[in-house]
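TASK: fixed-backbone design
INPUT:
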């Protein structure tokens, strides 16, 4: 194995090169080596200036996320940074690639900072439910001012090297190779006898009174429900109000609180799940992938053009084909494309026609994707002589905004086509989730259970505004009724029509959806659905709907009662979790993380709860099981029979994600 840190000398400059692929994360072995090498350089009388830089594709991309939440091991990240910061010899750091989190904090602890022109610098900790815990919240505002520190730390997005130079975060943008540029800079320091500069000795400037209050308001609007942004702000406020050492203590205390929080556990789970999800589970992972350099999108509607824009943004050559145009499907672009994405209307006959035509004109080895979420992909594929090349690519809409992309394997889709389509999704910046059966199925089934409970709750005594408030307070962007209004009542109406035969008598008689639909209240598009909407889109409860709901209960002989918020949340959420366990057990998806990614990136499940199945693990499956059993006794086995998978996992002492958490956070 290559050495983690190599020390070389050029004259009086000692250069420490870190090399820990893939991203030089500050895991314990690297920290220990860095500390040892730095001590060696400090103790070497020939070395007057120390340079730190990284080999490989990037400078340190942060602390090792996998270590967060575990017992800290000395030297911890802050130990190493403070050791470097306290050095009496000038320390120069040279960054390339992505200098993030603990990596950038280490740079702030150094006395001079350089970055290559294409480097990105940032503090993404907030996205992991934590804050920069290596002195970043104290040094950064001292260097760039409070406003910019808030932007970087609360916002979480990186900035360019040029911006960093303008802000005073770095001393120079370097050209060419990192090592020679840093060496030249270090030699200049020696020549000019430049005194070393410690960020900790500066004063953090509050540009205007009331800035923290403005940011608090912004956070509660834009990052509703997340704890970390507020703690980031609190730590930065400490940089203004406290001496450096006390600010550092405050930062440590807040960091410890956050890293142990359920939100951060969930957000760290999401970080790894987002990377794992597009790898196919099982042996097919090793199948060689097909190259996709050119794409033809069939269909000129908003779906087709939206998909084409995605490919263009990812710099993949793409053409939109109008299938109604003469020779449209038989055009040269279709013939030469590596991937053809069909985005015509959701009609089986039409799609089969398109695929039969594609079969004739496309080159051998091209992948043929359909965007359907409801039709049987096998039926589409069977009209071709290359069913192995046919795969589902179901984009959420609007295409640019929804990150979820379901990649569906039909019965005869070959593993390499499935895996290649997943890779394409990743290149597009989507979260591509492999699904078996057909796309939308896992989520549709889970959603249907939630909606069933939401409607039952209405007829038992709740009103749409209450149900929506409770679900929104849990962290969804919209409650179920506001979500139906946003999507349009039509789709749920159709779903009910299609599934009528499978419904229980109570589900059929709970026909509030049909009643609202019959009034022509089709949702936001008609400015009225379960709520009413002003000209500017503002939502308000509608007394007409409340009356309709109350009358419905009376007509069904149901005595309305006061329904608590806790009951609403329990019934909506546990319906999702229980059905999630069923779709997993039935193999609609292969892994718990597929369910969680679908719900987070397609259906607004709060990131800081990690997805329905991760959340179930956090609650503790025995607690989930007890709750389901109680709901079953009260509301009926046809709706609430606990999923057998939950029972089995409990017997095996496991959760959906392997070993059951040691301290379930059941409430
Ligand atoms: C922190 O710094 C806390 C401190 O403030 C305080 C401490 C006291 N750790 O994304 P990719 C893995 S918190 C561990 O596919 P890309 C990643 O899982 C940290 N592993 O590549 C993947 O592994 P695999 C703050 C990490 O080129 C592989 O590297 N920093 C870490 O698309 C490649 O990653 C962050 O939050 C890590 N820090 O993007 C930055 N980073 O192949 C997080 C990556 O097994 N990282 N891995 O699936 C990123 O944003 C992106 O990975 C990066 C590269 C932009 C660097």
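OUTPUT:
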């Amino acid at each position: 194995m290559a050495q983690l840190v190599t020390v070389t000398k050029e004259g009086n400059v000692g250069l420490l090169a870190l090399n820990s692929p893939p991203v030089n994360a500050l895991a314990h072995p690297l920290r220990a080596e860095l500390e040892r090498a730095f001590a060696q350089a400090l103790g070497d009388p020939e070395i007057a200036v120390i340079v730190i830089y990284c080999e490989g594709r990037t400078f340190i991309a942060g602390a090792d996320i996998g270590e967060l939440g575990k017992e800290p091991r000395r030297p911890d990240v802050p130990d190493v940074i403070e050791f470097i910061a306290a050095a009496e010899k000038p320390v120069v750091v040279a960054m390339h690639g992505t200098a993030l989190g603990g990596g950038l904090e280490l740079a702030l602890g150094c006395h001079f900072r350089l970055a290559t022109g294409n480097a990105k610098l940032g503090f993404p900790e907030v996205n992991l439910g934590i804050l920069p815990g290596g002195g970043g919240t104290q040094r950064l505002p001292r260097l760039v001012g409070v406003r910019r520190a808030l932007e970087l730390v609360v916002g979480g997005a990186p900035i360019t090297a040029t911006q960093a130079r303008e802000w005073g975060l770095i001393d120079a943008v370097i050209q060419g190779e990192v090592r020679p540029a840093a060496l030249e800079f270090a030699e200049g320091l020696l020549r000019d006898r430049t005194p070393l500069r410690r960020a900790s000795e500066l004063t953090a400037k509050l540009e205007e009174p009331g800035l923290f209050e403005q940011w608090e308001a912004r956070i509660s609007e834009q990052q509703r429900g997340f704890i970390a942004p507020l703690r980031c702000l609190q730590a930065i406020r400490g940089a203004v109000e406290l001496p450096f050492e006390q600010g550092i203590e405050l930062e440590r205390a807040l960091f410890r609180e956050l890293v142990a929080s359920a939100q951060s556990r969930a957000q760290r789970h999401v970080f790894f799940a987002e990377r794992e999800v597009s790898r196919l589970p099982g042996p097919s992972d090793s199948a060689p992938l097909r190259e996709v350099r050119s794409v033809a999108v069939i269909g000129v509607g908003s779906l087709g053009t939206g998909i084409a824009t995605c490919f263009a943004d990812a710099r993949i050559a793409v053409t939109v084909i109008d299938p109604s145009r003469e020779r449209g499907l038989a055009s040269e672009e279709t013939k030469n494309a590596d991937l053809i994405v069909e985005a015509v209307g959701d009609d089986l006959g039409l799609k089969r026609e398109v695929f039969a035509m594609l079969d004739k004109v496309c080159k051998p080895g091209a992948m043929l994707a359909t965007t359907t979420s409801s039709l049987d992909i096998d039926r589409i594929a069977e009209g071709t002589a290359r069913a192995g090349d046919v795969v589902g690519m179901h984009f959420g809409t609007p295409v640019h905004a929804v990150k979820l992309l379901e990649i569906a394997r039909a019965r005869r889709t070959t593993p390499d086509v499935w895996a290649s389509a997943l890779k394409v999704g990743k290149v597009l910046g989507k979260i591509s989730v492999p699904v078996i059966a057909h796309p939308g199925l896992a989520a549709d089934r889970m959603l249907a259970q939630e909606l069933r409970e939401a409607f039952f709750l209405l007829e038992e005594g709740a009103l749409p505004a209450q149900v929506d408030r409770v679900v929104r307070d849990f962290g969804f962007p919209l409650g179920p009724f506001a979500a139906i209004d946003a999507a349009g009542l039509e789709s749920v109406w159709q779903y009910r029509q299609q599934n009528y035969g499978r419904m229980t008598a109570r589900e059929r008689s709970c026909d509030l959806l049909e009643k609202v639909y019959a009034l022509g209240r089709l949702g936001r598009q008609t400015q009225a659905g379960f709520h009413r909407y002003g000209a500017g889109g503002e939502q308000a409860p509608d007394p007409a709907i409340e009356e309709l709901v109350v009358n419905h209960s009376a007509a069904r002989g149901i005595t309305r009662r006061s329904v608590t918020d806790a009951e609403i949340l329990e019934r909506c959420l546990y319906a999702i979790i229980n059905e999630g366990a069923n779709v997993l057990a039935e193999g609609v998806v292969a892994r718990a993380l597929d369910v969680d990614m679908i719900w987070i990136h397609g259906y607004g499940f709060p990131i800081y709860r990690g997805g329905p199945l991760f959340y179930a693990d956090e609650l503790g499956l025995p607690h989930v099981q007890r709750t389901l059993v109680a709901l079953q006794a009260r509301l009926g086995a046809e709706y609430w029979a606990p999923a057998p998978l939950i029972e089995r996992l409990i017997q095996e002492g496991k959760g959906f994600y392997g070993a059951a958490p040691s301290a379930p956070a059941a409430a």
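COMMENT: The chain has a mean pLDDT of 95.
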